[in-house]
Write a structure and sequence with these properties.
This protein is of the alpha/beta class. It folds into two domains: 240 residues, TIM Barrel; 68 residues. Helices cover 44% and strands 15% of the residues. α1 runs antiparallel to α11, α7 runs parallel beside α8 and α11 packs antiparallel against α12. It is globular and about 60 Å long. The mean pLDDT is 94.
């Protein structure tokens, strides 16, 4: 079985079946562009509130912006009523998204209290209506991202995958852990295989993927593709690393110096995109993923998170880079 291959999702053709997962506060436009350079076949934006878009929230509207360099891109939306979901899907399409993804798997309490995220798994009729509303609103493919279960008592992955297919979704992404697990524990590959066996649309497996071996497990279970989340933070070239490993090519070293060079470039892109204050603040969120694996890394992190200007950050990185081989 060929592990890495082109993937068709509705009308959208992907160069390969490796997908960047949507991650709140992380998968913004600068990071998405970087992951496409790093070999991803598709990148997904951090989720946007349909409710906030409906009421004209400027920050949410900005999150829909698409850089010409970041195609193909999927824009993820979340919400609890058909009208705002349909509006949000249309807004994403108008902004240039190649596809729209409906979130029905987020376990964050704030999202769940609003009737969105993984609580939709409890009301399949409502989830179906939301999916159908999005599908009818746009011409681009609509996909669903959910989980295999809410808890360990009942696995819902196969049923939800079939629901997505019946409602017109072009693909479904299944996080192979229960909602109660958040991001911990081994993914349930058997539950993924069961879901893959009941639908004809592509099933994209997600959860705990950090190397080529796990990618093979998911593809062998019947997944058409895999979605990588936290494994890409601090290493946006993980996609190409996996491709190289599976094709027998030697991996290109991403030692601490190279990683810091990439991180500095990302910080500079964040500042250019958001402005200095917001760009620097957003960059701090992932410092632990990037600034590690070399002597005095913790000291550098401690200094970095206290800096407020790009020029100070550039000076710090320059000094450290000059000392690294």
């Amino acid at each position: 079985m060929t592990v890495i291959h082109p993937l068709q999702i509705g009308s959208v053709s992907l160069r390969n079946n490796l997908v960047l997962a949507p991650m709140a506060g992380i998968t913004d436009s600068p990071f998405r562009v970087l992951c496409l350079k790093g070999g991803a076949g598709l990148v997904c934006a951090e989720m946007v509130s349909a409710h906030a878009l409906h009421y004209g929230n400027a920050k949410s509207g900005r999150m829909l912006q698409v850089n010409p360099k970041e195609h193909p891109v999927s824009m993820q939306i979340f919400g609890s009523d058909e009208q705002t979901i349909a509006e949000a899907a249309k807004n994403a399409e108008d902004a240039g998204a190649d596809m729209v993804d409906l979130n029905a798997g987020c376990p964050v309490k704030k999202i769940n209290k609003a009737g969105a995220g993984c609580v939709l798994m409890k009301d399949e009729a409502k989830l179906g209506r939301l999916l159908e509303a999005a599908v009818k609103a746009v011409k681009i493919p609509v996909t669903l991202k959910t989980r295999i279960a809410l808890n360990h008592k009942e696995f819902l992955g196969a049923r939800l995958a079939k629901l997505a297919e019946n409602c017109g979704a072009a693909a479904v992404t299944l996080h192979a852990r229960a909602a109660v697990d958040i991001h911990s524990g081994e993914p349930n590959v058997d539950a993924l295989a069961q879901a893959c066996s009941v639908v004809k649309i592509p099933v994209i497996g997600n959860g705990g993927i950090s190397d080529a071996a796990r990618v093979k497990d998911f593809i062998n279970a019947g997944c058409a593709g895999v979605m990588i989340g936290r494994g890409a933070v601090g290493n946006p070239f993980i996609f190409q690393d996996i491709i190289d490993e599976l094709s027998g090519k030697p991996a290109i070293s991403k030692g601490p110096k190279k990683r810091l060079e990439i991180y500095l470039k990302l910080i500079e892109e964040n500042v250019a995109y958001y402005g200095e204050r917001i760009g620097v603040n957003r960059s701090r969120k992932t410092a632990g993923y990037w600034i590690n694996g070399f002597p005095n890394a913790s000291d550098m992190r401690g200094t970095f998170v206290r800096l407020d200007t790009l020029s100070e950050i550039q000076a710090l990185f320059s000094g450290v880079l000059n000392k690294l081989m």
